[in-house]
Structures are given as C-alpha cells and as structure tokens.
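Lay summary. Proteins are chains of building blocks that fold into shapes, and those shapes determine what they do. In this project we predict the shape from the chain. Here is one chain we studied, written as its sequence of building blocks.
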Amino acid sequence: MDQVNVTRNETGNATAADEYEWTQEVMFKIRTAVLLLIVIMAVLGNLLVIVSVMRHRKLRVITNYFVVSLAFADILVAMVVMPFNFSVQFYNEWIFGTVICDLWNSSDVYFTSTSILHLCCISVDRYYAIVKPLKYPIKMTKKMAFVMLAATWLSPITISYAPIFMGWYTTKEYIQTRELNQCEFKVNKPYAVISSSISFWIPCTIMIFTYLAIFKEANRQEKALHARAGNAMLMHRHSREVGDKNGALHINANTPTKDRNILKMKREHKAARTLGIIMGAFILCWLPFFLFYVSTSLCDTCQYPEVVTVIMFWTGYFNSALNPIIYAYFNRDFRNAFKNTLACAFCSFCKRSASDLDAMERLDRRSSAQLRVPIPSRRASDLASL
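And here is the predicted shape, written in a compact code that computers can read:
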C-alpha cells in the first residue's frame, strides 16, 4: 500500500513538473513574440514616417523636422537598445561583456533623453504657432529648428556616455563586484536624481505648462471662430435679401484671406492635438519607469521581482512603436501620406506618386475654394462647421 502511494506521489510530481515546464515554455514563446513585434513595429513604423515626410511636400514643415528627428531616434532605440535587452530575456544572462554593457546602458539613457527633448522642442514650436502666431515666423525659422535639433542630440551625452564610461554613475561596491554575465544598471543616488530630472522631470514640466497654455488659447480661438461663424451667417442672410436674382453672395476682398487664416488655424489646432496625444502617450509609457527608477535608486532596502524591471523597460520601449500609430489615426495628412507610401512600396508600379498626391490635394482645395463663393448655402454651412 505504501509503495502504491509513493508511486502516485511520484507520478503527480512528474505531472506537475511537466505542466510547469510546458507553462514556462509557452510563456517564453509569447514573451519572445511580443518583444519581437515591438521591435519590428518600431523600426517599420518610424521608417514609414521618415519616408512619408520625404516624399510628400505638404508634410515638409518646420514642426515635422522635429517629428522626423524623433522618428530617427526611435529607430535607433529599436535597433541599438532593444536587441540587447531582448538577448537578456532570451538567454537569461548577459553574453557581451562589460564594455558592451556600458555602451548599452549609455545608449538607453541617451536615446530616452533625446526622445523627450524632441517632444519638448515640439511643444515649444506649437506654443509659438498657436499662442504667439505673429512671432512664430520670426522665432521658428529653419536655422532655429536646426539649432534646437543639434542641442537635442548633443546635450544628452552629458548624462549618458560620459558619466557611465567614466564610472561616475554607480557605486564603488558595484564596480568591484560586477560579473561578466550580468548587466545591471546600478546607479548611485546623485546620478539617479540628476539624470531623471534632466531626462524626464524637467522637460515634462515644461511640456505640461506649454500645452496647458496651448489648449487654453485654442479654446479661446475656438469660441472666436464660432462667434465669427454666427456673424457670417447673419451677413449671409442679409446679403441674400439685398443680393441679385441669382442669389450671388456679395463679399469683400478680404474674405478669402480670412478663410485661409481660419483653415490655417484649424490645421494648427489639429496638429497641436495630435502632438499633445503623442506627448501624453510618452508620459504614460515612461512615467512608471522613472517612478520605479528613482524610488528603487533612493531606497537601499527595497526588494522587487525581476519581472517588474522587464515590464517597466519594455513599456517605455513600446512608446517608440506607438507614435506612428498615433499619426496614422489622428492626423489626416500623415494618414494619406502613409497610404500612398505603402501603396508604392507594395505595388510593382505605383499608380499614384507623391507628386500626384500633392497635385490632387491642391486641386481639391482649389475646387472647394471655387465652390465656396458662388453658393451661399455651401458657404454658410462651411462657416457653421468651423
């Protein structure tokens, strides 16, 4: 009887062990597939952004200089940073030595800081475009944009490659006890506070205040547009009473210019909304990581599972793949450019080139402008929709 019980126990333990191994294998495959998908999405999506801006003249504006540079930084994150983290998850150890470990940690800090500084530049660009539109052509020139981009790419070196390769970022105990098959980013308290402030906290504070000012001004302009639309409808009603027999609308020479200003203002608002969503997505992806990074660096006795670190890192990495999706969903110009670029990429003969797309957009705008003047009802409905 005892022998039977022992046999049953051994069989049960073997079955439990088999189920555990099967579960671990399935989880490993799912994790590998998800991480590879994030890498591929980040590379292809941001490459699509760069190619689309290069191919379509309508997208070649100063704001999109920062967007293209941000996309390039996200591509480098996917190609330089993510593969090393993926190798750690695949092999469960570090296999590249201490020098590559320092290079990987430096690149991780560098590109994260570069991304958020790009978003900070974009918020400043949108601030001048909407809150101070008269100063925008003077302040935000191509030369100023290139100066801002140069500062964005060069300044993060001071908290990434320089302190990490010099050993200023970590403790003496970690340098003396670090192992070849481990690549931990063990930082000291001063470096944790300074690097997180420069990389995240200070730029995020600037972005929050600039976008609050942007949305406050956008709401004010929106109310002004609605008031102008109401006045335009009253003018249309009066002009229809005193107009000619065909019902032609008598307008002054300044009306087309005002319409162009209104349409330009609406485009600025849409661009600010899209870039504001991108900023919000970045904060949601990286805020948990920086909270975790600062709290664990300042707390000497805190214990946490390794899986938490993996989740925090890859949640932040996922932001590099998220930006092109936001462009495609919220920005019509980018959405049309993406469709045209993908059609050219997957077709052996492109039926519609980038120049054709720009020509069609100009033709649509010209035809809509022609239809807007002679038809009073169309003009009233257009202004009411603004």
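What the prediction tells us: Residues 2-55 form the longest helix (54 residues).
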